[in-house]
Amino acid sequence: MSDTLTLSRHDFAIGDKVVYPAHGVGQVAAIETQEVAGYTLEVFVVTFDHEKMTLRVPTKKAKVAGLRHLAVEAVMSQALVTLKGRARIKRTMWSRRAQEYEAKINSGCLVSLAEVVRDLYRSDSQPEQSYSERQLYESALDRMAREVAAIEKIDRDSAVAILNKNLTKAA
User: Fold this and answer.
1) 3-class SS at 19?
2) What is the pLDDT of residues 120-155, one digit of tens each?
3) How many angstroms separate the CA atoms of 148 and 156, rounded?
4) Count of CB atoms situated within 10 Å of the CB of 141
5) I want to staple 158 with a disulfide (CB 3.0 to 4.6 A). Which of 30, 36, 91, 154 is the partner?
6) Is the domain defined by 73-170 classed in CATH 1.10.510.10?
7) Max Cα separation, the chain?
8) Is there a contact between 16 and 28 (Cβ–Cβ < 8 Å)?
9) What is the predicted pLDDT for the residue at 170?
10) Does 2-69 match 73-170 in CATH topology?
11) How far is CA 131 from CA 98, 134, 135, in A?
12) What is the pLDDT, as a whole number, of residue 7?
């Protein structure tokens, strides 16, 4: 009975798939009470299987930290439309653009991820990417694919195929 009360007080329940901005899709494995520096702290224990990592997020700080549920259908549709759009590459120095792309990747926003994937996508007929462009592209694509896979309940490779299909329509 106490578990039901504990879960109803929070935005997330044990077993929920969630997105943490800096790490992508994870799952709430538990809600624990821990003693930290003399304070009692309630935390969400979030596991990220693809990174073999466990993160503890204080329940009171979860929203501020950016922990959120998987994107709703409307947001996913908007992200797919964004992928089909025309790449918008600013004429600024690569280091500045790379910082902006990194910030978008770590924002945890599915539409921002779609913008990075769209802007850094190269079809076979286009010139090669630099190593750092490729790294950012792969990071954004992977993060986006994992969320799409979790939403659609499919594997990551199938999600990448969906994203690539939307990208090639744009090219």
Assistant:
1) strand
2) 998 777 788 899 999 999 999 999 999 999 999 999
3) 8
4) 21
5) 154
6) no
7) 61
8) yes
9) 59
10) no
11) 12, 5, 6
12) 43
Evaluate whether 119 touches 89 at the Cβ level (below 8 Å).
Answer: yes
pLDDT band at 5 (very low <50, low <70, confident <90, very high): very low
Phi, psi angles (nearest 5°) of residue 108: 80, 0
Residues in the chain: 171
Fold observed for domain 2-69:
Thrombin, subunit H (2.40.10)
The domain segmentation of the chain, as residue ranges, is 2-69, 73-170
Cβ(27)–Cβ(15) under 8 Å?
A: yes
Q: Is the dihedral of CA 127, 156, 17, 167 positive or negative?
A: positive
Q: What is the pLDDT of residue 11?
A: 84
Q: Report the alpha-carbon distance of residue 86 to residue 84 in Å, rounded.
A: 7
State both tokens at 94.
């690569």
Question: CA of 114: how far to CAs of 109, 120, 135, in Å?
Answer: 9, 10, 15
The pTM score is: 0.85
Q: Hey, CA dihedral for 156, 158, 163, 168, is it positive or negative?
A: positive
Residues 6+ apart with CB under 8 A from 103: none
Taking the C-alpha atoms of residue 58 and residue 156, their distance in angstroms, rounded to an integer, is 29
